[in-house]
Design goal:
- The protein is an all-alpha fold.
- It contains 17 helices and no strands.
- The protein is elongated.
Amino acid sequence: MLTRRATVRLGSVAAGLALLAAAGSGRAAPDPPPAAPPGAGRAGYDAALAAARRGEAAAAARAFEEFARTHPGDVVADDALAQAAQLAEERLGEPARALALYRTILERYPNRRASRRAEVRARFLEQALRSGAAPLAEYQQIVGGFGSRPKDESIRRMQALLARTPGFALADRAAYWIGSVYLQQRRFDEALAAFAAVEARYPASEWAQRARKARGDILAERGDLTGARRAYESIMRDGDPSFAATGAFAAARVTTELWRARLARAGLWVALLALALALVALRRVGRGLLAIPVEVKLYVPAAALFTALAWRDNPALGRALLELVAVVAVGLHLLGHLAREAAAQPRRRRWRRGLALGLGVVLFVGAVGFRAVYRSGLMSMALETVRNGVER
């Protein structure tokens, strides 16, 4: 806790620093409020904090303002005004009052910490209040109380606000908010429609670029990688330069996924070809293919136990391992029969046939294994593990 003497000294130091900053910039500094007199207490500030903790927003805002009025030189006077402004803006639905308080901070305490946030919020409120205080207050109530009511009710209220106030200064932001709520609920069709509406109605807004990015994310999650790449590339081509890097990064990421998807499809065809060649090579075995080689009998129980343990901790990894284990079991089964078939060949052809058949089985297992890892969504994790090793 600061003593009253230390408080007075801090107030004097802050005032001196403000004068030095103004002198260095060549501008006259505003006269600082007089320092708080020795012995002046902060009972009012403490009472305001207590009221805010009890949820008495109106009483707390009045107490903060009163403290700042009666103790303008106190080191927490700017914080008191900032607290009052935040309560007015977020809890009381009084954006005009909040704007006046933020402007007071900027006028009286331009070099205090609270002035940074005050400047940002004042700029926002000046723009948002161009269509009136009532629509902005309702918008803030909808967003601020989002967690305390059903999401569909919040969406309906926001849609009604936009329909009732077509000239609302934050219409682009509000329309994007509707899409983001749909996305949060994984209602992808409705989210896509909402984001497309933002792009169509507010093409020059930064929220149109955000909507385009969100639409690309949805398409990528749905597996439409080509559509997602088009959305990201349009940000690079038509968007604001500040969003170009975001679009470029997303486009590069989805391009990598496109190549992986193509490799996965190619892996399926390679696996089917290898399987067909193996079956052709074993066509003379006939019903003997039903006999399970000893390698498979040893492999399957251990692999099944390992897969079950992995599934318990990570279902996605478990599904990938299950598919991979099944493929390896088939590969071992074929390899066992192929080895016996190769052994029956003349000595001159035995090693060449065995090598070719073995490589075919390895190719089959590798191709289907790659596809299994890709389809499980674990490709990035697998590559990260290969690059950096197992996490310890």
